[in-house]
Design a protein that fits this description.
Largest sheet: 5 strands, parallel
Strand order of the largest sheet: 3-2-1-4-5
Number of helices: 7
Order of helices and strands: EHHEHHEHEHEH
Structural class: alpha/beta
Shape: globular
Radius of gyration: 14 Å
Number of strands: 5
């Protein structure tokens, strides 16, 4: 399966390598799955780490350098998709657009705007759901 991993899963995975989001991240990047991120995810992670976790930036950069060896970095197209209107937070719409463009089967996230959107493809799952699937 092709899985686009949202920013909050990645951040949680970096902060707690024993937690459910980290376990979901590992499953997403392990065969037969194919993990992906988009440019928006990387930019958002850098902004959040600089603002909220400035003392942990080196841990983030180390995680990111290793993660990008196994994750596919997919582009975010400029042209909007009609399904984006289902996402309340306009800043998250580019992530859904990237997932659609990359033909993701699953968007792995903890973000309620995605989880409550009603979007059915890609399938939107939180870390616990993904681990139990």
């Amino acid at each position: 399966m092709r899985i686009l991993i949202d920013t909050n899963i990645l951040i949680s995975a970096v902060l707690n390598p024993k937690g459910t989001p980290f376990q979901a991240y590992l499953k997403a990047v392990t065969y037969p799955n194919h993990g992906m991120v988009c440019e928006q995810n990387i930019d958002e992670m850098r902004r959040i780490y600089n603002r909220k976790f400035p003392k942990k930036i080196s841990s983030f950069e180390q995680f990111l350098s290793i993660a990008l060896m196994t994750l596919e970095l997919v582009p975010t197209p400029d042209e909007e998709d009609d399904r984006e209107q289902e996402i309340r937070d306009v800043n998250d719409r580019a992530i859904l657009r990237a997932a659609i463009n990359a033909d993701a089967d699953i968007l792995l996230t903890g973000d309620k705007d995605f989880l409550e959107s009603g979007v059915t493809h890609p399938k939107i799952m939180n870390a616990a759901e993904f681990l139990s699937s």
